Every structure is written in structure tokens, then in C-alpha cells.
Amino acid sequence: MIDDEEDARVSLRSYLKHFCPTVELVGEADSVESGLQAIQDHDPDLVFLDVRLTPGSGFDILQQLPEINFDVIFVTAHDEYAIKAIRFSAIDYLLKPIDIDELVGAVEKVGQQRDTPKHDMQMAIFKETLNAQFGRIVLPTLEGFVVVEVKNVVRCEADRNYTHFFLTDKRKVTISKTLKVYEELLADNGFFRIHQSHLVNLAQIKEYKRRKKGGIVLLGDGMELPVSDSKKEGFLQKFMG
Questions:
Q1: Domains, the chain, ranges and CATH?
Q2: What's the Rg (C-alpha) of the chain?
């Protein structure tokens, strides 16, 4: 357990003792330095890791480790941007104050998925996302995953519960996640949802044509896409700065 708030550690310690009997707490830490030392000393199977430490963050700990060979359940008081990467990678997280049912569910999920191919893929996707600092995005597919430079994504298109990624090299990658997931994940990387069905890389826009309602954008791959009337004002504000 790594958390710089003593009250938070006390609460989690109590919850684990009373509601998660399969979990043995072998160590605690309250900083990046002590957290690194605790992981090295105890070689844990699972780490409850606070996102924000003072100073630094839980991500600083993971980035300094040569290998992440344990499960992670993040704990945070904020549903912040960093959580998008965690959620996208399917790694569990708990919001403070911790809900007991959510804690029990997260622990059970770790136990069920450990030592499975899904778990290995999950950790691989998470580590890629973490190390890339959003410069790259990992797209899970039926065969495995595809690592893509974010700048090389021209646009994303919704198809019910699937999303099609169109890349600058003309590749098309289909993912079994909704467009809303990627709208949130890529919001701070220069992407904007111009239409219910279309999320575009603003850096790939070559031209915008006004219409009485909405408009049309021309992208770097030659594709023309509609800008819905409801998205027009937000698009212009975002694109024009």
C-alpha cells in the first residue's frame, strides 16, 4: 500500500482486514522513494498505489521500475485525466473515499485474471500507454494490439460499439470500444468530435467549409467529413484557439 495520507492508509488497512481476507498486507509506504524500496523489499503480487504523492506521483514509481511484475489498483481522490489511461488499459482504480463493494470487486477481479493471457495483455497495454505518455496509443485487437503514434491517427469513426481508426499510412484498425472512450482519451491530444460518428485529429484538417448548418472539413487523407450544427461552435473555438 503506497499512499501519502495516513488516514487513507488506516482506512484501507481496516477494509482489507475485514472484507478482503485473501489479501495479506506485507508493507506500506508514503512516498515515491519509500514506495520503490517497499516494492523491492517485499516483491508483492498486488500494489494499492495512490496517483498523487507529495512530491511526485504513483506513475513516477512505475516509471523507475525496470519491470512491473505485479498487479496495480490505483487509488485517487480525483477522477483526473491520468485515470483515462488507467481505465483505457482496463487496470482497476478506486476513488476516495473508498467504497467497500468496489474494493472487494477490484480485489476479486485481480484474483480471477491473474496468470491469464488477458492479464498479460492488459499489463502490456498499460505499460505501453504509461511509458509513451500519450505520444503513442495502444489499440487492442482480436489478435493482440497495435501501437500507433497519436500524430499518425487521421480520424476515428463510430460503428455502433466499435471504432475504426484511420491512419496516415492508409491502415484501418477496428477496436471493440465505443467512440466515446477515445473521445475522452484523446481530448488533450488535439482531437475533437465534430459529429456523432466522427472524431478527428485537428492537425490533419486541411480545410473547413461553412454551411448554413454545420460545415465540412477536408482531411489530410482526402476525406471530407460533416461538422454537425451542434458541434460547429465548439469546433471553431477549439480549432481557431
A1: 6-132 (3.40.50.2300), 136-240 (2.40.50.1020)
A2: 21
Quick check: helix, strand or coil at residue 228? coil
Task: Please tell me the total number of residues recorded for the chain in this structure.
Answer: 241
pLDDT tens column, 124-170? 666 655 655 557 777 878 887 788 888 999 999 999 999 999 999 99
Diameter over CA atoms, the chain? 66
* 3-class secondary structure, 129: helix
DSSP 184: H
Would you give the DSSP letter of residue 57? B
Cis before residue 55, ω within 30 degrees of 0?
yes
Q: What is the pTM of this model?
A: 0.59
The letter for the amino acid at 73 is: I
9 alpha carbon, distance to own chain's centre: 25
Q: Are 215 and 208 in contact (CB under 8 A)?
A: yes
**φ and ψ at residue 64, rounded to 5 degrees:** -90, -10
